[in-house]
């Protein structure tokens, strides 16, 4: 993950990281009796070697939330990194996913085997395809949930219409909908529907889908960051959390992981939140013209 920030600020934060080397991430209840760290480290889209480094560094900092999936093809690597770290499984919160709505029972069993665990804290349907099978897929997850094998169940990449259809037959309301969400891209319709039905939103790609240049290049984000003496990345992550959402982010660097997770000692003002809310769409295009 690239880093663009004033050297004095970044070096000061890195020095603090090196002296403390610990993250403090609060939790939020996503289902009855199930509390989840509001920030988890993500392992998707990278080679297995990177997944080892990502998880090992996160655990060395005291991080507890880990996000993976069958399609990432790294769950066995994640499991080994956890074992090598010697961290008690009960202290961790592992999120995994099954690839869509086909072969769900077999895919859940594969997730359990690859992760080397007899339960998963949060299991998501990765995407609503093929959608006509999602009702039956959800019934399978509810069965695993009733047995305690899946502590909480949810979905990912579901739009409002997908959620509406699923809820018509669901006995258990999805605990989480993990979606792409950041200051430059947010599906407000889906978010409003989720909030109305007590479905927690968890953001992936919280700094942008392909890179974080939008965050570092935004004069609005930079101005807010300067006001709080933090990085632009911290502002972008804080904006998500301050809206009451959760997030999963990714970095291989211990120092960057710690800085990104250091977002609980400052609070954005209501005016700053509103300015950041408006960066999506036309406002973002206009900003690009100014820059």
UniProtKB/TrEMBL annotation:
Family the UniProt entry places it in: Belongs to the aldo/keto reductase family.
What name goes with this protein?
Answer: NADP-dependent oxidoreductase domain-containing protein
Q: Where is the signal peptide?
A: 1-19
Q: Which UniProt keywords apply?
A: NADP, Oxidoreductase, Signal
Where in this chain does the record put each NADP-dependent oxidoreductase domain? 41-279
PANTHER family to which the protein is assigned, alphabetical: 2,5-DIKETO-D-GLUCONIC ACID REDUCTASE (PTHR43827), NADP-DEPENDENT OXIDOREDUCTASE DOMAIN-CONTAINING PROTEIN (PTHR43827:SF3)
InterPro entries according to UniProt: AKR (IPR020471), NAD(P)_OxRdtase_dom_sf (IPR036812), NADP_OxRdtase_dom (IPR023210)
> Matching CDD domains, A to Z?
AKR_AKR1-5-like
Q: Tell me, what's a Pfam family for it?
A: Aldo_ket_red
């Amino acid at each position: 993950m690239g880093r663009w920030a004033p050297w004095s600020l970044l070096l000061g934060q890195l020095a603090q990281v090196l002296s403390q080397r610990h993250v403090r991430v609060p939790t939020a209840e996503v289902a009855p009796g199930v509390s989840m760290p509001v920030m988890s480290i993500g392992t998707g889209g990278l080679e297995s070697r990177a997944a080892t480094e990502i998880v090992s560094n996160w655990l060395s900092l005291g991080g507890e939330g880990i996000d993976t999936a069958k399609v990432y093809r790294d769950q066995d690597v994640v499991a080994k990194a956890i074992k090598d770290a010697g961290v008690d499984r009960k202290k961790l919160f592992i999120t995994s996913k099954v690839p869509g709505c086909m072969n769900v029972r077999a895919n859940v069993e594969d997730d359990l085997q690859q992760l080397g665990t007899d339960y998963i804290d949060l299991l998501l349907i990765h995407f609503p395809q093929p959608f006509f099978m999602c009702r039956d897929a959800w019934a399978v997850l509810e069965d695993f949930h009733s047995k305690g094998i899946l502590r909480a169940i949810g979905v990912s990449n579901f739009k409002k219409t997908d959620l509406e259809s699923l809820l018509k037959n669901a006995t258990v309301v999805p605990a989480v909908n993990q979606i792409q969400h950041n200051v430059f891209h947010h599906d407000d319709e889906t978010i409003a529907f989720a909030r109305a039905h007590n479905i927690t939103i968890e953001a992936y790609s919280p700094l942008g889908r392909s890179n974080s240049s939008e965050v570092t290049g935004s004069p609005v984000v930079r101005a807010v960051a300067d006001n709080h003496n933090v990085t632009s990345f911290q502002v972008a992550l804080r904006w998500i959390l301050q809206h009451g959402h959760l997030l999963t982010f990714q970095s291989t660097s211990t120092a960057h992981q710690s800085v990104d997770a250091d977002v609980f000692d400052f609070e954005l003002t209501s005016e700053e939140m509103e300015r950041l809310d408006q960066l999506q769409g036309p406002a973002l295009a206009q900003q690009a013209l100014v820059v």
